[in-house]
Amino acid sequence: MSSVSPPEKPAASGRDSKASSLSDISKSKLEDKTSSVENLVDEEPTPFRWLDYLLGRKRTNQPDLDAVSTRRSVFDDPALAKHYWPNPDYENLHRFDPDARWTYREEKALVRKIDWRVMLWAAISFSALNLDRGNLTQANTDNFLPDLKMTTNDYNLGNSVFRLAFLSAELPSQLVSKRLGPDVWIPIQMCAWSIVTMAQFFLNGRTTFLVCRGVLGFMQGGFIPDLILYLSYFYTKNELPLRLSLFWISMNVCTILGSFIAFGVLRMRGILGRAGWRWLFLVEGGITLIVGIATFFMMPPSPTQTKTWFRPKGWFTEREEIIAVSRVLRDDPTKGDMHNRQALTPRKLWRALCDYDLWPLYIIGLMFGIPTSPPAQYLTLSLRNLGFNTFETNLLTIPSAVGTIITMWVIALVSETVHDRAYVSMLEDVWCLPFLIALRALPDKPDPWVFYALATVLLSYPYTHPIQVGWCSRNAGSVASRTVNASLYNMFVQASAIISSNIYRKDDAPNYRRGNSWLIGVCAFNCIILYPGVKAYYKWKNASRDKIWNAMSPEEKAEYLSTTKDKGNRRLDFRFAH
């Protein structure tokens, strides 16, 4: 945040053009309340309005669509505004108006447009990532390992190499993205990994398999934090977690579509003397290459930079740009800290790495996914070993993907409604624990359908990763920190996947009782110690700051804000979400 005082507004501001798009009723309401803070909204409506919509229920407490929906902000206090004003080189500064007011109708229409224009293509791009990093599981149903004369241990090693390369690329990718802009770097990544995916058509053994997995992981690393940073330019902190849930829901939709694609493509075994899995890599890599090329034209740098030679009218009107920028900065002034083409300095990078208040979330990133990853990775292999054929196996993976779509969306709604992160995120492990115990207790030769039922319900767990990504983003407190910390969090998630890839071992097959015992222990640790401990830490941290901040006089607070060297979540006026 800049300490530069807000510039004087010109006499002929955009106020007239902003009001021109309103209905007569909205005009009169906003004209009466343009510079007043009395009618501002304290918080956003509950996200359960989505659930009411899905269920077809009509709410009795809906706000007047023509009422002012602008949320209260530090920019409403002239004494505070100058301490939170965006930096002079912030790319959207020309559209930021702290006196602007807008209605629920306008904001709802704008957010819907952003969802269709920005969020939809982000989900498609994310689906492309998951199509190419998930097709190895489907290739396993078509004798992939025997064709290359490899074992399940080689398969585990390939997954570990992929994750290690993915992890190693996270931070470098973020640094490149912050310099070039995610709108440029993301499609470059997509095209690069699509070519590597297609090259897997020519695999001839263990060495080429491991090389391709490493290169593929390095090309894909950093993509998720890059995309999350990009979405944060358009959404408020309360809107982002629900969109991230949709983001990961698209992953499961992709899993379903990928199963149907595999069902058809794997039948090409024998064409030109090639195995079906080779055609699978070639076809799916070609699909994502097309999406990657299209992404160059579908990702504008920011809400005020949608006009270009191939999109001369842009996506938003001047009024919509003012609302888009002002509502995001009113919600989180730190988003005006940096330009979207501004590289991170070594000092900012080091400060973000040393932000120990986010380390508890990194530990969660390391631990939370371990109990579910091995059963998910080995589902297709286990089903084949139990007697299901290639095509049955691919179709049997669909129900758990559908189940996760439902539970993930519900858990995100619950999190935003009860304003809790730690205990709601813990529900993923609470869900998994009894089913892991049941899998551990199965006999040596289980009934195939009993195993399938347990595995399917287990893998329908409420995936809380989107909540935790939003949690980490919210607690970062600045653009520079958010950029680095998103990568660090995801690096720990990838480290978790490396650990998970080595829990089920060949000497423990086919029931993996030793591996499941480890999973049960990790799951219990997460539920009993990890999540409650992280919540307790953040509650203690907030209480400590409240004690200091509330004891200060208004003059002392103003003096602190004007002289402090603290940045982001180090400031005394910052509170951690938990």
From TrEMBL:
Transmembrane regions listed in the UniProt entry: 184-203, 215-235, 247-267, 279-299, 359-381, 393-415, 449-467, 487-504, 516-534
Location of the protein in the cell: Membrane
GO cellular component, one term: membrane
Keyword hit for Metal-binding: no
GO MF annotations in UniProt: transmembrane transporter activity
Pfam families: MFS_1
Coiled-coil spans in chain: none
InterPro entries: MFS, MFS_trans_sf
Region annotation Disordered: where it falls in the sequence: 1-40
Biased composition (Basic and acidic residues): 26-35
Keyword Transport: yes
Membrane topology: Multi-pass membrane protein
Keyword terms of this UniProt record: Membrane, Transmembrane, Transmembrane helix, Transport
Protein's name according to its UniProt entry: Allantoate permease
